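As promised in the previous annual report, we have extended the structural survey to additional targets. Below is the entry for 7-cyano-7-deazaguanine synthase.
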Amino acid sequence: MRKAVVLLSGGLDSMVTAGIAREQGFDVLALTVNYGQRHSVELAAAKAIAGELASEHAVLDLDLRKFGGSALTGDIDVPKGGVGDEIPVTYVPARNTVLLSLALAWSEAAGARDLFIGVNALDYSGYPDCRPEFISAFEKLANLATKAGVEGGGFTLHAPLQAMTKADIAREAGRLGLDAGLSHSCYDPTPDGRHCGLCDACRLRAKGFAEAGLPDPTRYAERPGE
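The corresponding structure token record, generated without further manual editing, is:
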């Protein structure tokens, strides 16, 4: 089996991405990065998901709290007013560039030439490092910056959810037979691990299941829209 490194945050999108990689016949190497995010409950979710979908799971510690600049890594309130048109304060500076660089390093070392990331450019919070232009540019970088790329091995960066809505992603989880209840998406979970129900991630997640006409297995502290 060909190997593929999949960035696995523990959220619904990364779970479905790992499921797609496995369905396509890849031996999934799941990479989770503990970057100091306040929603660390995702790390437990990632472990549970990796147990179902991956042959190997690596967790790397990289404390981006030292840089700050985001509500996910600093002492900034997570916005709860709904998804807006501007890039929100939950954007973590250059996060996907950093995470993909780590995934690329593992890929090259493991002899894998495929990387998967669960970014989405439709129902999302407007992060610049989720856009198709970014994915294309990073793939070019991967093939310029590595021994494998220079020697003709060639890397492919897959973003299978890029053009999906959250409803599409929820349906895909069902089609793949995944337990969406294992995943965790909230930016500001309660102390007992429930989704807050009010942040962008919770609103988009709930919207996806509702529009897909599927039961939402998420434990919310406050049901979005109520």
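The radius of gyration is 17 Å. The domain at 3-212 is CATH 3.40.50.620 (Rossmann fold). These points will be discussed at the next consortium meeting with the crystallography subgroup.
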